[in-house]
TrEMBL record:
Coiled coil: none annotated. It comes from Flavobacterium suaedae. The keyword Plastid does not apply. InterPro entries: MdtP/NodT-like, OMP_efflux. This is RND transporter.
Length: 480
C-alpha cells in the first residue's frame, strides 16, 4: 500500500513539475540590439601609429612642479572625488549582498513561552484527559522551550541569482571607471585653471608696462600743450586712454582672484595664494602630441569602459528578469530540541527536525513580471545607445582638439608677427608725433591696437595650452 502511495506521490510531483515548467516557458519576446564598436581607422591629419599620449603618467605629461603639487593635493582632498570613492564602496557592498543571496541562509534560534488553555474548551478538555505520567495531567499552564538551527536555500536553477551577482560586479567595476573619469577631468580642470592663471599674470604685467608707456606719453603731451603745440583735447584724450588702461588692471586682478579660488576649491582648501611659475607665459612649450589610433579609446577612456560595463550589467539584468518566469526551487530545513520542561530538552525524545522543498512558478497575473522584463530590456537597449554615444563623443573630442592644436599653432605665429609690427609702430608713432608729423589720434590708436594684440597673443597661447591639456584628457590620460 505504501509503495502505491509513493508511486502516486512521484507521479503528482512529476505532473506538477511539467505544469510549472510549461507555464514558466512562455516568455514574451524582446528586441535585441548589439552595440556597434566600429570607429574610424585614424584621425584626420594625424599619424596612424600606436604611440599614445594617454599612456604617459600625468606627472610626466605636466612638467611644472607647482602644477603637479596642486594635482597631488586635489587627488587627496577634492570633495567630488571623495564622494565618488564612497560610491565605489556602496557598489562593493552590493556585490556582497548579491553573492550572499545564492548561498544557503543558516541561523540559530531559541525561544521560551507559556500557554494557558481554558479548561472548559475542546482543546482544554482533551489535554486534561491526557496523562504524561500515570496519575498526572499535562502541565497547566503549559511552558514551551526550544533551541535549534534552521536553514533555507533557493536553488539557482536558471542562474537568476548568479546573474544578479555578475550584474552587481559589473556595476562595481563601472563605478571604479567612473572614479577614473572623475580623476581625468579633475586633472584637466586644474591644469586649465593653472594655465589661465599664468595668462592673467602676464596680461597684468603687460598692462603695467603699457601704463608706464602711456603715463610717459601723457606727460609729454601736457608739456606740448604748454608750448601750444597741441590742444587741451589731445591732453584729455591721452588722459582718458591712461585711465582706461589703469581700470583694466582691476578687472584682471579680479579674474586672478576668482581663478585662484577656483583652484583652491578643486584642491579642497579655503582661499589662499596659489604658488605658480613666474616664467613668461609665451615661453611655455609642449612636445609632439601622439594620438595613437581611435580603437585605443575603447581601452583608455574611462567613460567608454564605464559605459561598456554598464551595458554588460544591463544585459545580465535582462537574464535575471527572464528567469522570474521560470519555476523557483527552494529547500528549507531545521533541527533542534523542544519540550515543556527545560530538563527534557536533553532527552532524545525532544529532538525534532524537518526538511521540505517547494517548487513555485507564476501562473496567472504575471503583469508585474512582464513589466519588469520589458523594463530591463528597454534599459539594455538604452545602455547600447549610451555606449555608442560615448564612443562617438570620445572620437569627436579627440578630433576637435587635434585640429585645434594645429590651427592655433598657425594662428599664434601670425599673432606674434602682428605684435612685433604693432610694437614697432608704437615707437614710430611716438617719434612722428614728437616731430609734429603725426597727430595724437594716430598715437592713441596705435597704442590701443598694440595693447589689444598683446592680449590676443596671450589669449591664443592660453588656448594652445588648454588644447594641450584637453587632448590628453580626451585620449583618456591621467587616471592610471
Amino acid at each position: 500500500m505504501s509503495k502505491i502511495l509513493n508511486k502516486r506521490a512521484y507521479i503528482y510531483i512529476g505532473i506538477a513539475v511539467v505544469m510549472l515548467s510549461f507555464t514558466g516557458c512562455k516568455v514574451p519576446g524582446i528586441v535585441e540590439r548589439e552595440a556597434n564598436k566600429e570607429v574610424p581607422e585614424g584621425y584626420a591629419n594625424a599619424p596612424q601609429d600606436t604611440v599614445n599620449a594617454a599612456k604617459i603618467k600625468w606627472k610626466d605629461y605636466f612638467t611644472d612642479p607647482n602644477l603637479n603639487n596642486l594635482i597631488d593635493l586635489a587627488l587627496q582632498n577634492n570633495q567630488e572625488l571623495n564622494i565618488t570613492l564612497q560610491e565605489i564602496r556602496i557598489a562593493r557592498s552590493e556585490v556582497k549582498i548579491r553573492k550572499g543571496e545564492y548561498l544557503p541562509f543558516v541561523g540559530l534560534k531559541a525561544g521560551a513561552g507559556v500557554d494557558k488553555i481554558a479548561r472548559y474548551t475542546s482543546r482544554g478538555a482533551s489535554e486534561a484527559t491526557t496523562d504524561i505520567e500515570p496519575g498526572r495531567e499535562m502541565p497547566d499552564p503549559l511552558q514551551d522551550y526550544m533551541v535549534g538551527a534552521y536553514a533555507s536555500w533557493e536553488i539557482d536553477v536558471w542562474g537568476k541569482l548568479h546573474n544578479a551577482k555578475k550584474a552587481a560586479v559589473s556595476r562595481y567595476l563601472a563605478s571604479v571607471e567612473g572614479k577614473n573619469f572623475v580623476v581625468t577631468n579633475l586633472i584637466a580642470e586644474i591644469a586649465n585653471s593653472y594655465y589661465e592663471l599664468l595668462a592673467l599674470d602676464n596680461q597684468l604685467a603687460i598692462l603695467e608696462r603699457n601704463i608706464a608707456i602711456q603715463d610717459n606719453a601723457f606727460k609729454i603731451v601736457k608739456l606740448q600743450k604748454e608750448s601750444a603745440r597741441v590742444t587741451e583735447l589731445a591732453v584729455k584724450r591721452f588722459e582718458a586712454q591712461l585711465l582706461k588702461t589703469k581700470s583694466l588692471q582691476y578687472n584682471v586682478k579680479q579674474q586672478i582672484v576668482e581663478t585662484e579660488n577656483r583652484i583652491n576649491f578643486l584642491v579642497g582648501r579655503f582661499p589662499q595664494h596659489v604658488e605658480r611659475s613666474t616664467e613668461a607665459f609665451t615661453d611655455f612649450t609642449f612636445g609632439d602630441i601622439h594620438s595613437g589610433i581611435p580603437a585605443q579609446l575603447l581601452e583608455n577612456r574611462p567613460d567608454v569602459r564605464q559605459a561598456e560595463l554598464e551595458l554588460a550589467a544591463a544585459k545580465l539584468d535582462v537574464k535575471v528578469a527572464k528567469a522570474k518566469f521560470y519555476p523557483s526551487l527552494g529547500i528549507s530545513a531545521g533541527v533542534g530540541y523542544r519540550a515543556f520542561d527545560p530538563s527534557y530538552l536533553i532527552k532524545p525524545e525532544s529532538l525534532l527536525y524537518s526538511i521540505a522543498g517547494d517548487l513555485a512558478a507564476p501562473l496567472i497575473n504575471r503583469n508585474a513580471i512582464k513589466a519588469s522584463y520589458s523594463g530591463a530590456n528597454a534599459k539594455q537597449i538604452q545602455a547600447v545607445y549610451n555606449y555608442e554615444r560615448t564612443i562617438l563623443n570620445a572620437y569627436i573630442e579627440v578630433a576637435n582638439q587635434l585640429s585645434k592644436i594645429d590651427n592655433l599653432e598657425k594662428s599664434y605665429d601670425l599673432k606674434g608677427r602682428e605684435v612685433e609690427a604693432l610694437t614697432q609702430s608704437v615707437k614710430i608713432s611716438n617719434d612722428l608725433f614728437s616731430s609734429a608729423r603725426a597727430d595724437y589720434m594716430e598715437v592713441l590708436m596705435t597704442q590701443r591696437d598694440a595693447l589689444e594684440s598683446r592680449f590676443e597673443l596671450i589669449e591664443t597661447k592660453m588656448q594652445q595650452m588648454s588644447a594641450f591639456v584637453n587632448v590628453y584628457r580626451a585620449l583618456g590620460g591621467g587616471w592610471e
